[in-house]
UniProtKB/TrEMBL annotation:
One of its GO terms (molecular function) is mannonate dehydratase activity. Keywords: Iron, Lyase, Manganese. Gene3D superfamilies: Divalent-metal-dependent TIM barrel enzymes. Catalyzes the dehydration of D-mannonate. Its cofactor is Fe(2+); Mn(2+). This is mannonate dehydratase. The keyword Cytoplasm does not apply. It holds the Pfam family UxuA. Belongs to the mannonate dehydratase family. Its EC number is 4.2.1.8.
Amino acid sequence: MKIGLGFHQKLLTKQNFRFARQMGATHVVAHLTDYHTHPMDLELHRKMYSYENLKKLKSEMNEEGLEFHAIENFCPAHWHDVLLDGPKKQEQLEYLKKIIQSMGEVGIPILGYNFSIAGVWGLTEKNVARGKAKTAVFHTPQETPIPNGTIWNISYDQLAEAGEFPPITHKQLWQRLEYFLSELLPVAEDAGVIMAAHPDDPPLETLRGHARLVYKPSLYQKLLDIVPSPNNRLEFCLGTIQEMTEGDLYDTIEQYANKIGYIHFRNVRGKVPQYEEVFLDEGDIDMIKALKLLKKHNYQGVLIPDHTPSTDCDAPWHAGMAFALGYMRAAINSLNHEA
Ligand SMILES: [Mn+2]
């Protein structure tokens, strides 16, 4: 098993690549644009996903001894009509294919995606992790409808008419996913790129009135079966799976270990509709047990910390990640010694 670190766009710097290497990471997962700040800037997003930029980023990572392992998420501006079955759907799908082809040419093996309308929503920050560390919590928020022109809490169309768009059903959502995968997976196969699906976070059957895709472990199988391909895999988020009310995390690892693209290695206390993200060693998941099961199934891929509580110091994000990476490295080394 290999250790990676996930970076948001602003953190994709030489200094941070060194930090990752110093903490024992060997792989990078990158979010390529800051779509919260520039939701409408399609040109900027396209530039970030271009062959030239991917190649440049990869060589910067390689210079610091890291591999460019995965891109996590498309920008809402790239594919809102794929999710919403809108008029630009086919045009947007063609652009997503181009991204996958560029990834193949540059040699970036995995694309993580989240096929979701409401996205990650309803989380707030509270000082409830150990030692009053600030962290993301989901505490049964009041669900509000989704305004027109919005996807993933991002307004992609400021000219959209006022009002809300009608909620979509599970059947519609799965049909859209099927079309998306049937268009993209053949391209991904040719390019040698794996597509890895993140489950819905928070994992609720519906959110803000809209159907969610993978909110219980058995729906992972449905996703794998709907368009069978060796390149159809999972972005396996331990925290999100633990937040699900159905199924058991350890059984889920055993079931899907050989279908994982890469792993979000994080811990949580509670389940929907009430949970708190916590440090790796204080949540409901026995992280060592999880690692042992992955090892049992010969999982050879990458694990990244995903999120972690912020720490009270001058570098809250870095310190939180350093703690997570040190924990992961010690745990994996110790399992390897046992073997
Ligand atoms: Mn995750």
